[in-house]
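Re: weekly structure request thread

Next one in the queue (325 aa):
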Amino acid sequence: MIPGFGARRQFSDLSEKEVLALAISSEEDDGRIYTDYAEAVRSEYPATAQVLDGMSAEENRHRLALIAEFRRRFGEHIPLIRREHVAGYYARRPVWLVKNLGIDKIRAEIARMEDDAATFYLAAVKRAADAGTRELLGSLAAAEQQHLVVAETLADANLPPGVKGEEDDKARRQFVLTWVQPGLAGLMDGSVSTLAPIFATAFATQNSHTTLLVGIAASVGAGISMGFTEAAHDDGVISGRGSPIKRGFASGIMTAVGGLGHALPYLIPHFWTATGVAALVVFVELWTIAWIQNRYMETPFMRAAFQVVLGGALVLAAGILIGGS
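Done, posted below.
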């Protein structure tokens, strides 16, 4: 039997005492989550951190109201029951995962948390027989439904005009520096630098299988090299480019993808068919690079296209000439 399988309770089987205990632990957890998010963004987004501090304080007020109601009805001892003990109960994503996805993802997660909490309280109201408990749970359901309005009010107080826009711009710049820039460098290196060895092998051997093996080796090798180089040459502390591990993965993976794009067509046994497909893939790769440069690096599209296509064409021609000689 799988450990823990079948050990969780159904929500419908919980007593009113247990429902209140579950609500208390959930509010405590959510308050701590908001505090964790606040600490995660405080240095870069201090105004948003203030908003999250306010959200945490609101959750604490809910918790205290629930404890007071529990004490009125059931006494001092609150049984330990948490959301993971109840089958089908909403779960929270790990803070370490969400906070690494950027400020917009944190804001979206907050909205999801409030929706989940409101749904829980609406279900809990139906289980409560005591008039005072029903009133409290109903008011908390309404509060959670309006919590985003509270967040907006807090944002109005703590985020002066333009601050949210500045934070969003900063988040976008960080995304570009950490993910797009190293990923684009990797894609360019993988797409362009592997053209010569792959097409030289292709025209020298006119054998799809041999070309495929050389292409995979060149792409994977270049990906590993670029990934380690990107991660090792800058720790991101002074440059502000973010985690070297993230940048290394972005660069290494996109380098390998860039090379594999025109290597994998040689899975096609017929050499000239595979070469035609590979040439088409190269065309798509180069225009994709130009589009990314225009979209994220604000390089004029025609200039980016000219630079990338010209460079790629020269490397492709070199590979073909060397392989055909």
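The two ends are 66 Å apart (CA to CA). The chain has two domains: 9-159, 174-324.
Next request, please.
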